[in-house]
Structure formats: structure tokens, C-alpha cells
Protein 1
Amino acid sequence: MSTAEPMPGQTLRPGTAAAVAEPTNVLLPGHDVPLGRYTTVRRLLPQRQLRTVGAWCFVDHFGPDNVANRPGMGIGPHPHTGLQTVTWLVHGEIRHLDSLGSDQLIRPGQLNVMTSGHGIAHSEYSPPDHPPTLHGLQLWVALPDAARSDPPGFAHHPDLPVLAEPNHSVTVLVGEFGGVRSPAVVHSPLLGAQLWLPDGGEARLPLEAGFEHGVLVMSGAAEVADVVLSPGSLLYLGIGRRELTVRAAGPTRLMLLGGEPFDESLVMWWNFVGRSHEEITEARADWMAGGARFGRVRGDDADPLPAPEMPTTRLKSRDRHGRTVG
């Protein structure tokens, strides 16, 4: 997925949410961002008060949208560096194409993970004969320095582990939860898990105390850690929690994100995650030149999306608290 905002991470500055090193409850409203020609998303991360949750550095929630008589998602060829994209659907279908030759249709309950490494290009479309509703998440994971120059890759996981309890279920997208582990390969200690309460009720979730966590509601509403949460906001929970209580009056779907605090400083600009202004400038030039670094998205004849113009000021590397580094 491509962000329409040239500098999604550069607006962040030091704030209480990112700086707290103990359990906390900070409710962070998202904002709407147009994506492609037909889709608007609620951007929940990054924010001014919070750059990352673990290595999760970008969270877009889209839908539920009625796309019965509309094209649905349509995002043409665009590049990525220094990250993994994680795509999760509740309703609808999306076709993923990339410069490795991957051509994969993702459906609800399945997971796509694309690793950009040094550089990859991809596109995402709703197929012509698509379901009437589109609803899901697109997330980015910042790659640590040791992995961010690796070759690109793509993996599709049609089956994920599900923990079934009497009144709720937990699907483990990334990492380990409740003694089961997702098959998805990531490069830092990380958790992504969907909680589904079909009839409401209460769920008590065990947490890794060394992780920081955040929660978002995809549908319904819930009281999470004594905070009322509905779609459109991210609840940051800090670090040090060993358990999380969720209560819902009716059908509710939530996403729990967590991970060890990501201590590497980042420069985020357009679709690139790097470490310096020079890296971003080079990536933009390579994309606009159409060279071998990103390649062409196979099976997609659409024109590649042009990169925005570079800002007139120098891009700054920032730590997870939003502080300028170097």
C-alpha cells in the first residue's frame, strides 16, 4: 500500500505516550487519508504523540466500505524500502502483484507479508468480480538495520493459528500468543493478534510484560483497560502489562499490536523507511529512474506512481520518542 502523505513519520515529536516506560492508557484519534482513487483510510500510526508500537510503524484501517458498484481498492505500482507490509482482510478481496512475480489474491482470514528489503515494487487491486464489502488493515513493520538491506520477499499464509475460547477467539497474525506461533517471518520480537467477540462479553488476554502494546477496534465497541474504544482511534497501553481485559456489549473485533520497543531511529518519507536524508533521496531517485533496484510490477501495465518532490528542508532521523538523532 502506498501512502499519499509524503512524510508520515516526520510530523512526530516527543510526547508522553511514546516516552512512558510503564503501563498507561493514551487514546490517540486517527485521521482520514485518501488512498488511490477510490479508498479512504483511517491512519492510526504514526502520530505526533507516538511513532511506533514495537516495530509497527504504520497502521491504516480501511472500511467497511460498500464497493458493490465501485472499483474498490486500486493502488498502482509503487516502491518500498526498509519495511514489511502486513495485509489483513475482514471482508473483500485484494489482488497483490509485485516485481518478484508474485500474483496473489488475499481473502479474509489470510495474511500477506511482503518484505521490501533494499527495494521492491507492488500494486494492489480489488478484482473485477469482487465482494460487495471491503474492510481490513494495512500495516508496516520497520526492518531492523541487520535485515533492511536483505533481498525482497513475499509470503502468503492461507491458514493462521486460532485460539478458540467459549466466548471469543484470537487469531495470531504475527508472533506468538497463548502458546501458539504464527508462520509469518518477522525480524524483531513482535505481536499482531485479532480478537473476535461474536456476542460480546469479556476476554482476559495474557500479555508479554517486556512488550509495549496498542489496541484498535475494527468493528463494534469495547471497554479496553477501562477506556471506551471504538473504530477510528488507537489505544496505547505502554509497557509492563501482563494482562489485558476487554469487555464488549455486542459483536466486536479488535486488533492487538505489540513488540519490544524499537530503539533504532528512523526516517519515514512517502513509501520509504530509512535512516538518513541521503538514503531517502537515493531511493526516490532510483524509483524515478526506473532502474533495477525496484524493478517493474509483473502483470501490471499501469504507469508507476510518481514519487512526490523532496521537501525543501532536510529530512531528520528520529527515535521512537520523536527526538531528532544526529
Note: The helical segments are 16-19, 277-289.
Protein 2
Amino acid sequence: MTVDGSLVLHGLNIVYELATLTLTTLGLAIVFGLLGVMNMAHGEFVMLGAYCVVTVQGWGWPLPTAFPLAVVVCGALGWAVERWLIRPLYARPFDTLLATWALAMLMRKTVEAIWGKGYQTLDTPLAQPLMLGATAYPAYRLGLIVLVALLLVAIGLWWRRSTAGLRVRAMTGNPVLAQALGIDTRRLASRTFVVGVVLAGAAGVLLAPLVRVEPGIGVDYLLDAFFVLVVGGLGSLGGLLGGVGAIGGTQAVVSSIAGQTSGYAVVLVLSILFLWLKPDGLLARR
């Protein structure tokens, strides 16, 4: 491969890493950024989506059927969790953290009991390369990058121009006033939580063909998403993108130079510095 080809490949890998980080952070950005709930089970919902792919493969169904399965499973579980676990604890952030941490362990152990602790392999025909000039790159990764870009545009338009987005902004800005104006904040909060966990499950479905699926994969996704929100700030799409750029870009560059462990260490130090010096992040909601 030529030097130019190597640069293109390296650049595509960085863009892919940023896209996957955005995808796995979106759900937590909604739940934590808008509702103030630090959902410690976020990574487990990503894991649950990945195991939906494992399930449909075991049943002999087409892989795309994992999407509706993940929506139903994560949506139903998310609704039940918000209704009976999160709702009584909205005014007690530390208690919600402990409750969702316990939920994460329960989900992980349940998956271990059903599928075991080992890695699951997926037979997928999604690894065909696509030629970009003289550079071959997996078509599925390119499709994932495009999908994430379109998803961000759709969320931005929904947030700014839809009636539902206006109601969510009102609820997060001043819930008491929003309720006085006739907005059912309880139902809206429940739907927002469900959307967040469904996005996490959808991320798991999309990433399952690219990662090693096992019960512990959710922990890494939770930590990466948390670092992104710490650096970028809560409650804004700009904060999400800023955090993804700072965390994903730093980790990708440092890892390529000094190894993956060094990249993770630098990201950890960067997050601690932001918590100390700029706790609101780069572009927090005002």
C-alpha cells in the first residue's frame, strides 16, 4: 500500500472509531444529559442489543430481524425500569446510580446464565471490501459511518423543529413550569428514557458483527460514553460531538503511537482534568 493509501486507511479508521463512539454514547447522552439519570446499565443495554443478533442467528432468522427484536426487548425493559426503578428516585441521583448499577449486574448475570460467559461468534457476510481509489475498506464500516451521520442530522432536526423536541426542552429547562403548561412530564420522561435505552440496544445490534460479543462488553461502552459526556458536556448535541472528538480523537492518535493502554490512560487523565477544571464540559446545555 502506498503512503497516500496508508493515510486514507488511517483516516477512515479514525472516522470509524468516532462514529462508533457516537453511536454508543447517544443513548446515555439522552438519559443522563436530559433526565439527569446516570444509567449504569447503559452498557448492558448495548450488550443486550448484540445478543439479539446472536439470538436471531441461533433461530436461523435473517440478521436484520435483530433490530425489531432489540427495539421490543430494550423498549419493554426500559419502560419497566423507568416505571418501577427510576421514577421513585429522580430526586435522588446517587440512589439511581446504585439502582442501575445493581440492574447492570443482574442483566449481565442473566445473559451469562442463558448464553454462558464465552465469546459468541457471528456468521455474517458483511465484511466485503469497497474500493475507495486504491484503498480497500470494509463496506459495512463505511455504511455505519454514513448511518451515524444521518442519525445525528435527524436527531438535530427533531430536537430543534419538532413539537416533541420542544416539549422535551421545556421539561428539562423547567419541569414545574412545563407541567403547569399542561405537558405530562412523567410520561415524557418515561418515553425519553425508553428512547435512550432503545438507541443503546440498536447500537449493540449494529456493532455485533464487528466486535467480540460476550457478557462483559458493556463496561467499556459505559466508561467511554461517560468520558465523552464529562468532556463534552450534558444536554446538547454540540457537547456530544465535542466530547466524541476530544475523547475519540485523543484515544485514536495516542493508541496508534503508544498502544491502546496508553491511549486509555490519556483519556482517563483528560476526563479527570475536565472534572476538576471544567466540570460543565466544553458545550453543556445552558
Note: The beta strands are 129-132, 135-138.
Protein 3
Amino acid sequence: MGDINATLRAPDLRLDKACRLFRLNRSGAAVVEFAIVAPLFILLIFGMIEYGRMVMVQQVITNASREGARRAVLDGATTSTAVAAVNEFLDTAAVNSGSVEVIVSPDPPENAGYGGAVTVTVSVPFSKVSWLPSPMYLGSTTLVAKTTMRRETVK
């Protein structure tokens, strides 16, 4: 019986020795693998940050255009009240309203008759609202949100 155990252990020792020698020759392999994977991983992280910010700002300007349109369709509304509503919403959402373009059509909104459509368009270049110093993927993109509502006036 002791003889069988000795023969079973011998190949294990030889295999262990060969694996140990193979592991000793791999010094620096992790560094090389990291050097290959790290730039791709960093680009992926920056891309997720950039696209996440784009989706967030798009939602914010959509809501801002909606608020501007709500104000523009009321009786006695002016273009400046609609623009002020948009800028107020953008300021509370921490989007720099200095780089935002707001267009109210028709201008002034009271030119739209009873039940007429009033459109508020908000646009901002993504490079002005990006969290990254120079956006890699969406730098030349302009985010646009448009809301149209019917004018609420008394006949």
C-alpha cells in the first residue's frame, strides 16, 4: 500500500515543480496586461461619464423648454417671461444658462391666436455643459429640446 501512495505523489510533485517554474518566468506579466487594458478602460469610463452627462442635460433642457412653454401660453405672457422661466429652471438644475439659446415662436407669444401653437426651443452646445475639459465623443454636438403647447386665451 505504501508503494501505491508513493507512485501517486511523484507525478504531482513533478507537475507542481513545472508549474512553479512557469510562474517564476511570468514576472512583469501583470504590468504588461495592465498597460494594455488600462487605456481602454479609462476611455470607457470617460465615455460613460460623457454620455451620462449628455442624457442628464438633455432631460434638463427638455424640462426647461416645457416650463418656458407653460409660461408662454398664458394670457399676458411675453417672450421675456418665457425666457426667464427657462433660465430659472436651468439655474436650479446647475446648467450654465449663459451658453443656452432660447427661441420663442411666435415672438411675442400673444401673436398666436386662441388655441394657436406656441413653441419654445432650447439649445445648448454640449462642449459648454460637459464635465470633462474637452469632450472626446460629443464635443461638436448641440443638444436641442422643443416644446409646443396651445395658447390659453379667452375668446
Note: Strands lie at 101-105, 117-125, 142-150.
